[in-house]
Amino acid sequence: MTRPLRIQYPGAFYHVTNRGNERKAIFKDDKDRYTFIDLLSRSLEVYSVNLYSFVLMNNHFHLLVETPLGNLSQFMRHFNISYTSAFNRRHHRTGHLYQGRYKSVLIDSDTYLSMVSRYIHLNPVKVGRIKMMPVSEQLKQLWNYKWSSLPGYVSQEERWGFIDYTVGLEDFGGDTPQGRNSYKKQITTDLEEELPIKEHIVAQSVLGNDDFVQRIKSTYLDSKSHREQPALAKVHKYVAEDVIIDIVCKISGESRDRLLRKTCPLRQMTMDLLYRLGGLTNPEIGKLLGLDYSTISQGRKRFRQRIEKDEEMRALHSKIEEIFKDKDLTLY
């Protein structure tokens, strides 16, 4: 069987799943689930990925994500390795945890985002004897299922801090009491029907209307071999690296030479900005700064930790980001 294509570009939305090897459990208890959540939250921040919905099942998980930097593969590789290592270490085991590589379906967010979100949230009642229960009993299971983003869609008190609930609620009137109630009513309706998702997936990889599928095909698949190839084209431009460095220097008062060569929090901030706004990979940033790519990853992580505690650095970082939002900068 041909492997599904990996189509990546900045701003893409995906339904991501991964299943335990031989369909075995990937969570043995709640401590494993909390570890998974913690590592997921960290990975989302490190790779600037947005998470809109999730559910953890016994032997698999579902995520609905957006990748502003077009870096799904890097994000998932880091996250899966992190959790596998933690799971193996805790349970004194070795080897693969997952059944092959993760699966991802590129989503037409205008047409299918809400439907995929609801499909993910319905998973806990689509297994075993639960799916044979009356709708009223299934609803009780759903509202009480802890390891899902669904409760936060209907109650602000049940929210996880690393989830963006606003996007999934847009079709229902927004993140308002009315919008949350409308989402809740739709979930009830969905329980009585089969959400038409799987039959609309094209080539195991794309879920969208005809225009979306054709656009993806013409942009990323035409004139390529049938073998999987990474999508190299960008669908929008990033702020040039020189502009980022110049603005950091101007706002901070640091010289360009010292910024690029001196180990300091400002240098770590620059790493973070080059990754998130410049669209550079860790190896590319490492080459620019004369560092190993793993040092860049650690530097960006330390910076994100620092600004949680350092108000002055956080204010400087926010000021620089506002400049990028407000001004018409030179792009490449």
What does this protein structure show overall?
- This protein has 332 residues and is α+β, with helices and mostly antiparallel strands.
- It contains 14 helices and six strands.
- A six-stranded mixed β-sheet has the order 2-3-1-4-6-5, with helices on both faces.
- A hairpin with a 3-residue loop joins β5 and β6.
- α9 runs antiparallel to α11 and α12 crosses α13.
- The longest helix is centred in the N-terminal third of the chain and has 20 residues.
- The C terminus is likely disordered.
Q: Please estimate the helix content.
A: 40-55%
Q: Characterize the largest beta sheet: strand count, sense, and whether it forms a barrel.
A: 6 strands, mixed
Q: Sum up the overall morphology in one term.
A: globular
Given the helix and strand composition, which structural class is it?
alpha+beta
Rg (CA only): 21 Å
β-strand number: 6
Parts with pLDDT < 50 across at least 5 consecutive residues: 224-238, 328-332
Distance between the termini: 40 Å
The count of helical stretches stands at 14
Order of helices and strands: EHEEHEHHHHHEEHHHHHHH
Spatial order of strands in the largest sheet: 2-3-1-4-6-5
Mean residue pLDDT: 84
Oligomer: single chain
